[in-house]
């Protein structure tokens, strides 16, 4: 039953980030798209390896030798969507709450990726596999990430009703979830997994060698496979189960 509830919560969160419903995110004055979708190439002369996106915008990221930033959005939204690079971080946001829009998508290509963050109902998806020695992924406030990754050291942080769905491979995987968030990484093969779930959050993993799991305050950790070493600590209504 918990697996069904987790899957439903993850699907709902990821679906809402990409839909066209006129949702008030509580982020101030709103605007609707005019239906005239145009493409605009943005300045990417400054190098960056991290991306932060917020305010219900949709990011499609691709690892590529050549960097580019392209905004595909309703014409009247283009001036409201900003893409600024500072200290190696590309920040994508809007100065208004965007409601119903034909498109509010930003396509980013870059050679090296170290960090991706989605917040305030924004979404991040990818084409191909994201490969990085050290990669950090973060979601909060109903943000969503759906990626295929390969990393030596992969760190995931999810909070406040946000979600992640990950596939791929990792040598070391560290997951921290809280406040009703969901991380589905059962299709991510990882040698060593450390996970900490709290406050009604949920984690699904597939450790190959070792698992160190903590679950508290109504949270749930489930794992599949037969790791050689398993350390479990469940408290305050938390649970840790083998699928």
TrEMBL record:
Gene3D superfamilies: 2.160.20.120. Residues 216-243 are annotated as: Disordered. Residues 47-227 form the Putative auto-transporter adhesin head GIN domain. InterPro entries: DUF2807 (IPR021255). It holds the Pfam family DUF2807. Residues 228-243 have a biased composition (Polar residues). PROSITE patterns: PROKAR_LIPOPROTEIN. This is Putative auto-transporter adhesin, head GIN domain.
């Amino acid at each position: 039953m918990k697996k069904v509830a987790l899957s439903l919560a993850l699907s709902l969160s990821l679906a809402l980030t990409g839909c066209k419903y006129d949702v008030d995110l509580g982020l101030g004055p709103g605007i609707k798209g005019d239906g005239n979708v145009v493409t605009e190439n943005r300045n990417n002369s400054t190098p960056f390896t991290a991306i932060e996106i917020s305010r219900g915008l949709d990011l499609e990221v691709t690892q590529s030798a050549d960097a580019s930033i392209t905004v595909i959005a309703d014409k009247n939204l283009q001036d409201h969507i900003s893409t600024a690079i500072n200290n190696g971080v590309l920040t994508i946001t809007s100065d208004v709450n965007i409601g119903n829009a034909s498109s509010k998508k930003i396509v980013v290509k870059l050679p090296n990726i170290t960090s991706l963050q989605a917040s305030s109902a924004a979404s991040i998806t990818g084409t191909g596999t994201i490969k990085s020695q050290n990669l950090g992924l973060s979601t909060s406030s109903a943000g969503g990430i759906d990626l295929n990754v390969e990393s030596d050291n992969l760190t995931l942080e999810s909070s406040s009703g946000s979600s992640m769905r990950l596939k791929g491979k990792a040598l070391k995987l560290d997951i921290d979830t809280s406040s009703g968030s969901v991380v589905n990484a059962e299709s991510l093969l990882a040698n060593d997994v450390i996970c900490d779930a709290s406050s009604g959050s949920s984690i699904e993993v597939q450790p190959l060698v070792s698992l160190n799991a903590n679950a508290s305050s109504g949270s749930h950790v489930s794992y599949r496979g037969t790791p050689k070493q398993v350390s479990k600590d469940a408290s305050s209504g938390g649970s840790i189960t083998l699928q």
